[in-house]
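Q: Convert this sequence to C-alpha cells.
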Amino acid sequence: MKLKAVSLLSILAGLGLLITGCANDAYVEPPADNVCPDTYVRIIKGEVSTEIDAQGVPVNPATTFAEGTKVIILTYWITDEICCHDLSIVLKCNDEIIFTYTQTVGESDLKNPDSIEFYPQQESGFAAGDYTAVVYLDISELISVSFTVV
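A:
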C-alpha cells in the first residue's frame, strides 16, 4: 500500500509540473540575421564603349570595335550599395583571361553607374577577337558583357 501511495504522489507531482510548467521563464535566443544585405545586389545593365560622359554614361555604346582601339570601357549599373565584399572584373579574349581586377569595396567606393577602362596588352591596340567582360560579387557572377574587335 505504501508503494501505491508513493507512486500516486509521484504521478500527481509530475502532472503538477506539466500543468504549471517550470518556475523559470523560457528564453529563446532570437535567430541571427544570416542574410547579408548585399545578397540582393544586382547589376541591371552593362555596356561597353570607348568614351563616357561627365555623368559616367557611355557615349555611343557598341558591341563591335575596330582592331587597334586603344581603350574599351565597361560601364555597369548597380541596384544597391555594396559593403565589404570583393568586386571582381575579368576580361577574356577568345575564352582566355587577359585581365583581372579585384577590389574590396565599401559603401563610398562605387558610383552608379561605375566603369572600368580596359587597355590592350600591346601598344598597337586591341587585337581582333571575341571578348567578354564579367563582373563578380565575391564568387557570384552579376553580369557578362560580350563584344567583338574586328
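The mean pLDDT is 78.
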